[in-house]
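Please fill in the sequence for the structure shown.

STRUCTURE ENCODING:
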């Protein structure tokens, strides 16, 4: 089974990260997540994470660098997660995401419930200074 390509935006602003909570109707319901989703045909994971962040949060970001690439088999399917460090295009401190997204400080990341495949990225962010 080939993996579904997923672009994920890890957006940091003033020591806080953009995090949402998955809705009740899909896979991994209730888990916390970074903005992201399935890549479209002919779309790179880098392009995907920027598009998905805008669609899900209303915030415009630019991808800066890839921080991880993880393939993982869940009950609902095989995924390849491409995590990209992103920054806001607008650096205004009052920018608020819409939907169920919020800004979470680094220390709070480990107390949230992320899908298992996110573990290495959460650990990397937790130890960054």
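FILLED IN BY: designer on duty
SEQUENCE:
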């Amino acid at each position: 089974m080939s993996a579904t390509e997923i672009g994920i935006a890890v957006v940091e602003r003033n020591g806080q990260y953009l995090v949402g909570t998955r809705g009740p109707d899909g896979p991994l319901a209730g888990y916390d997540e970074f903005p992201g989703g399935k890549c479209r045909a002919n779309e790179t994971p880098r392009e995907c994470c920027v598009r998905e962040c805008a669609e899900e949060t209303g915030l415009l970001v630019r991808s800066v660098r890839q921080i991880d690439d993880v393939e993982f088999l869940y009950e609902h399917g095989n995924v390849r997660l491409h995590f990209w460090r992103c920054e806001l295009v607008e650096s205004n401190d009052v920018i608020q995401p819409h939907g169920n997204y919020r800004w979470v400080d680094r220390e709070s990341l480990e107390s949230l419930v992320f899908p298992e495949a996110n573990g290495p990225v959460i650990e990397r962010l937790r130890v960054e200074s």
